[in-house]
Structures are given as structure tokens and as C-alpha cells.
Amino acid sequence: MHLLYEEGGDIKIATVHSASGSGETESWQASSLSGKKIKLKAKEVWLRFEKPEPQSVMEEANALSKGIDLQLLWDCAPDEEFGLVDVSQEYFGAQASISQQVALAIALQGAPVFFRRKGRGHFQRAPLEQLQAGLVALERKQKELEQQTVWQEELVSGKFPETLMPIAKQLLFSPDKNTSAYKAFIAACAATGESPAQLMIRCGAIDSPLDYHQGFFLKAHFPMGANHNESIQLDKDTYEATLAQLPLAQVQAFSIDDSGTTEIDDALSVTTLADEKGEGGGYRIGVHIAAPGLSISKDDPLDQVARTRMSTVYFPGDKITMLPHSLIQQFSLDEGAPRPALSIYVDIDQEGRIIDNSLQLRVEKVPMAANLRLEDLEHKVTEESLLSNADGFPYRHELSILWQAAKLLHAGRQAQRIVNGLRPEQLGLIDPNALARDFHFQIQEVDGSKRVEITPRQRGSILDTIVAEWMIYCNSASGRLLAEHGLPGLFRTQKGWGPLRTRMQATPGPHEGLGLEYYAWCTSPLRRYSDLVNQWQLIALAKHGVTAKMVAPFPPRDATLMGIAADFDASYQAYGEYQDRMEKYWCLRWVMQESMPRHVFVRHLKEGMSRVEEIPLHLPIPELATHPRMTRAEVAILSVDLLQLSAEVRVVHIDSIEKQSTPEDDATPT
Fold this sequence. Notes:
Number of strands: 24
Largest sheet: 5 strands, antiparallel
Structural class: alpha+beta
Strand order of the largest sheet: 4-3-2-1-5
Number of domains: 4
Radius of gyration: 38 Å
Helix content: 25-40%
Oligomer: single chain
Strand content: 15-25%
């Protein structure tokens, strides 16, 4: 005997091996057509029959079910609940065969729009209104499936459907997976074996892997676009009024930056002091910071823009600024005119030592005498040239004074690093044989395509050290002023080890890596929101002294600051990861600019990860995993995948060199 039953929504037939019980309690041990052993109870069985054979019944029934007129079947069915055998006699006649009855079971089970299930083998036809609504929905779904098929075929052929072009990036970066467009897109990817990005590029919906990487970042962090709203700006009259209220500093300030810097946040000045006899008694060093905090107020539209972005995003060939370009132009410390600034002054003696209790904080406008560029000056500034009386370059005398003091500032920090259990950092240029850490990416259009030049820049020059040490001092002094006056701020701390050892927090704490008791970023308010927040607090301190806590934008124990600290850390990390990703992209483009395979030399770092000597490209090379750190090898880069940002590498030759110190050994996040 054979039994018709339903399992998981499908109609199936089983062959009985043995039976037990009778009537309502009867049950059978049986085998399905697939050979699966099952047990069926009487209430689960739709139909019993002896002949024909189950396999032939199912084959014939499946074919017959496709021709059943569901509308006619609905017309034939009674209003009340009915069984399979009853309706089969209405549709096929009194002599309905087993195959016809099974076909009807398949049709009824697969037509929920026409018939409601009322138990195993029993149905009731749907009310007319529901049937009509269901048929409309079926028709709409059929049209969607047809459209989905058309889109899928176009995508597979390499043509991106015109109607989908406006949502192309949405399909790639943040799709609604329930839409026909997405289903067609994913089905096309499955058919071609391509990733979504590969298919988009082949169909011309996005231009290149670069467009993909940039689009993915922008969708996540700048969903409304990277451009600033031009209506949000500081009008000229308000800026002029801010400038008019400030006293003019009696200094001639100058900045030191590379030629690509357009947001000039900081500058320096040196003023000779006279002793009681009117002779040289030392110098007053001024660190002058651009002061957008004078015109941007907490929670105003410009603040909302800055807080949303949290930082300027840097990457090879471009950047996304935190503040609108018009405001940057107003407050950037460009040469030629006095600029609003928050200045920290400190006095040093003739040897460069800081004089106790000489620290001053002022809000003023600072005459900007010059914007010095590293490319023009760095190679000229040496120990010998600074000691010379000949003025071979601008501000030789001032730079020599700043350099003498910077060396003492550096030495003091290294002494504290040793106390903290860390190795002292080297002053000056690092070992020329070590891997370079900093690089300059220059991207140019050549014959209709972009070409990248990557040049290493050794850190540690005299100008580098002057700027670094005095900015570190400014940040340290700012942190101390905030802490000693009980003003909250965003402090950059580093203590212990682990992934969260360097972080932003709203309370003072040491930065062990820099050898400082207090450290609060404040020298880049045009580029970092943390610095703008701290500038508001410092401006309140400069203007109101001991009563600053009563008027500062963020009073003590303000919970808002803790949220800002967490948001800043998250954004700053994400922007840094994107910069690293873009640098890797352009490094791989650099590799592809020459004929492949391209032979380069690498140094093994750890666990099979190596770095190309010429450029900051890290590559996994398992063959080097067992070799000592800094093992040198020649490798051939056979192919590059710009979407996955990976490369296929073959080792050509391995030779071992003595371990060199690298920036990765001693790098201290600041």
C-alpha cells in the first residue's frame, strides 16, 4: 500500500512496510521515494492507494498539476470546507485517477491565494474579495519577477540598467535586500562569479576600484556628501568685528609647514628680553594658534558641522576638511596680515632653559610675517648654519634660539620616558638604513590617467624637531593650565599597554610615551574638533582667569565632554584607517606603473608580514615568517588586486641583515 502525505509544504508518497492499530489510531512504518524511513499516523495521510507505482504517480501528477485551471477549480469547489477526493470528483469527474487526485493535491497545496488550508487534505476556497486582491498581488509579483529577470540579463551582459543608475551606489554600499533591484544584482553576481564591486565596474556603474573605496568610506561617514553647505559660514562683518576687539601682539610670527599645507594652525615668534641693565636677558617664545573658537560658539551651525565631522580627513591626493573653506581662509595663519590667535608665551634664558612661572596665555591678533616652507628651507638648516653669523636663510637667529630650547625640551621628556620604563627616543635624523616612516604622495594626471610618485621623507630634521617640540610643549602647557584651574577638556592620555592605551578622556592624565604629566591637543583647531573644544576652554581662561569655570562652554563634570571624547576617538580611528587604505591603494598603483612582474626589496617585520623598502606597502609573505626581524629579501610582485588591495608575491632571494631600529620599534602615538 502507498500513502499520500505532506511534509514541509510538499506533497509526497510513501510505501508501507508494516501497520499497527486501527481506525483513528492506525499508523504505518514506511519509506519515502527518497528511501527515508518514516512513521505516519492516520491523521497525517491524505490518500491511500495500491496501484500504480508511486514514482510514476508523482511524475504524472507533477505534469498534470501544471495544467490545472485554478480559477475553474475555485468555481467548482463548495463554499464550505472540502476534502481532496470530493473536489477531485467535481473537477475530473467520478472516475478521477490516483494521479489526477495527487495532481490536484499539489495544485491545492500551492495555491494559497485561491484556497485556505483547513487541515491535512482539507481546504476551503478563499472569499471573492481576498481572491481578487491576491490575484492583483500575484500579477504584480509576476511583473516584478519578469523585470528582475530583464535586469539580471542586462547586468550579466555588461550593461547597467538605466533605471537603476540613480541607485547604483545604494545597491553597492547600503542596499535594501528585499527589492527586486538588489535580487537581480546579486543573482547577476552569482551567475558571473564576480563580486558586487567587480560587476559594478564592468558594467560602468562605478569608474574604478578607487571610486569603490572612496564611495564605501563616504557612504559610511559622509552620507550627505563631503562638500560643505555654502550657506553655513562666518560673514565678513562678524569676522572683522572679532578682529577689531583683539589687541595687536608685538611680535613678528612665522609658521613652518610643507608646501601642501593650506590649514595653517600654528606659528612661532621669538622676542628678545632685556635684563635690569638693559642688556640681553633671554627670550620670550610665542606659540600662536589660529583661533576659530573666537567666532564659533558651542552648538551654533559651524560647531554642528565641526562636531559631525570631528576632524579633517587626509588621504593621498585630496582631503575632506572639518571646517568650511571660507572659514579656514579667515583664520588660517597666512602671511601678510594680523590674524586672530590664542597665544602661549614662555620665557627662556640664554641657554634655552624655561624660566619658572613665566607662562602667559593671551587672546590677540598676531602679525604673520612669513609662512616658511620645509621644502625651501629644511636642507639649509643645520647645526653649522645656525651657529654661523651669516644670514643664509630667513629667521636664522630665531631658529637657532628655538632649536637650542627644543633640544632641552626633548631631553627633559626623554628623562621622564626612562622613569616610565621606556627607551629614550633619538634626537635628530634616524638611521638612514632604517625603513622610512613618512612619505609624500603626489598624484598627477599623465596622458589621461593618474600617476603616483611616492617619495620618502626622513623625520627628525632640525625644523621638524623645532616644530614638534614646541607644539608638544604648547599642548602640555595647555593641559596643565586646564587641570590646575579645574577646567574640563579633552586630554590625550597614554598609560600602560593594550589597544586602548592611547585615548581621549575628559579628565587629566599622563602621557607616558611623551614623558608628560598633562597633554591636551590644542594646536590644530582648524583640523581637529578636540583642539577646538580645548580652545574654547582656554579662551575662557585667558579672558576670565580664576572665574573661567563660571563662563566656560563646558563646566566641570559636564557629561557632554565624555561623549565627545568617545565620538572623536571613533572618528579619528576610522579616518586613519581610511588614510591607510588609500595609501595602500596608491602603493599598489605605484607597483603597477612599471611592467609586471615588478621586482622590489622588502624587510620582514613579524609573523610573515613584510614591508617594501621604497614605499609604505605591507605585504604578507609566509616564506619569511620563520626568518629574523628585518631580514631582507628580493621579491617579484606578480599581480595586483586593487579591489581587495592585495598582491601575489613570489620570493626571489633572501639574505639576512643585522637588525636595524625602525620607527615601528619606537613609535609613540601622540
